[in-house]
Specification:
The complex is a heterodimer of chains A (238) and B (284). Chain A is α/β, with parallel strands linked by helices and 238 residues long. Helix content of chain A is 38%, strand content 26%. Chain A has 9 helices and 10 strands. Chain A starts with a strand and ends with a helix. Chain B has 2 domains: 1-43, no CATH class; 47-283, Orthogonal Bundle (MetI-like fold), CATH 1.10.3720.10. Chain B contains 14 helices and no strands. The chains are: A alpha/beta (238), B mainly alpha (284). The complex binds adenosine-5'-triphosphate and magnesium ion. Adenosine-5'-triphosphate is lined by residues 12, 15, 17, 35, 37-43, 194 of chain A. Chain A: One of its GO terms (molecular function) is ATP binding. Chain A: Pfam families: ABC_tran.
Chain lengths: 238, 284
Amino acid sequence: MQIDIDEISKLFGATAALHPVSLALPSGALVALLGPSGSGKTTLLRILGGLEFPDTGRVLFDGQDATGLTVQERRAGFVFQSYALFRHMTVFENIAYGLRARGRQRPAEAEITRRVTRLLELIQLPDIGKRYPTQLSGGQRQRVALARALAIEPRMLLLDEPFGALDAKVRKELRQGLRDIHDTTGLTTVFVTHDQDEAMELADLVVVMSMGRIEQIGRPQDIRARPASDFVRSFISA
Amino acid sequence: MSDTVISHVTSEPRPVRAALIGFAVLAMALLVGAPLITVFAEALTDGLPVALESLSHPEAVDAIRLTLIVAAVSVPLNAIFGIAAAWTITKFQFKGKALLLTLIDIPFSVSPVVAGLCIVLTFGANSAFGGWLVANGFPVVFALPGIILASMFVTFPFVAREIIPVMIEQGRSEEEAALTLGASGWRVFFTVTLPNIRWALLYGVLLCNARAMGEFGAVAVVSGKIRGLTATMPISIEMLYNEYQSVAAFSMAAVLALLALVTLALKTLLEWRYASQLAANRRH
Ligand SMILES: Nc1ncnc2c1ncn2[C@@H]1O[C@H](COP(=O)(O)OP(=O)(O)OP(=O)(O)O)[C@@H](O)[C@H]1O
Ligand SMILES: [Mg+2]
């Protein structure tokens, strides 16, 4: 799904988290929001997911105005920075949560089991359904959070620092994991990071942000070759 | 783990420590143990049958029933208000949050008698509102609604105070995750929020219940102490005692103490059974 961000701005009290920013994300792209701490990456992601509402501007999904859609109506698969797994539920129940929440269109129990099993296989953790989140490693939690987000058959995938809490070796493995899942599902995927290697290696399109503004949008190789500002130059060479 | 930490940071020599512990035990025995034993001993001076006989007196039965009704109404209501207050304070950003937190604590600092007087002044027959209520057949003061109001005022902070720290620590992200997965607000509350606070909530409800059944000061002012009608257990105990009906007074006191002991036992059981979860949840 194509996502357009049109002159979005957001104030928190007196701090401008986002000055009006505009951005077009092509359908099926894997996009990195890259920038230092406090540059507004999370705010932009939360606005896309419907967890935060912009002060001005519009969000368009496939050309349709989605600014007023509630978080439930957005159907965005959201992976939180600390994963936010439901601590009192097993992994199976975590992943099934979105299916059970569907009310009248809720699938039959056998269908739920089938889908959860398939998602556990997709994240290559077929045997952990009965465990609780505290009994998982950081990398396993991240993958469960991803499976839980995918269970609702989302229209897009939004990830806030998906590799933030992991050690270097696991990060590398999971980067490939995210790439694979993106390629199999074909979902428009936006992930937040402040690690320029991660953004450059993984993304089709990199959005460099600083202090609530977009500094540059481009393919990794273009940004490397032609940084649009001193900020971008120093940030990607850091 | 806390034990080892304590032995590292304290440097008192052994005799000092023994003396301190001894003093604490002695104080507990004098202040808590002795009165409790006395209550049961006094109740049983003429034997168990006499004590039970005094409890089956119609006025005693009325007092016990009234206390149970007051607890049964005020505890669930306070649980709901406590959850609502904790939810508002922890999940939203707004001006006056600190003020609201202070308001929740007021019952802890205001004397229950003063609270009772405020209710009498607001709802009593001498005030315009109270007069209107009485004229319309719904007296508050010297009646059940006043007693419930007074009990609720006094026990209001217990539930909120237990669950606010838990909610603050857990943050909002699990609820937000549930919303992004398509759950409605109510569904999020019942499937995510409530299970996450359940032990703290239960704990708060137990404390609230113990206090609601035992409250004297505020209830004494609003109830008018009408025997068999607005006399709760603590009120009847006082009245019986003043009339030198010591066996009856102490029998009733023993029942009240037993109810409190059951509450304490439940609380201890919970603490023991869910020690790790409570430790992770409690900050005060
Ligand atoms: N709920 C909020 N209330 C007040 N200010 C906020 C809130 N959320 C974000 N901000 C402010 O908005 C700005 C942008 O924050 P944001 O979380 O989007 O940054 P970020 O790029 O995700 O940073 P990080 O890499 O540290 O996560 C910051 O100055 C932050 O302090
Ligand atoms: Mg962030």
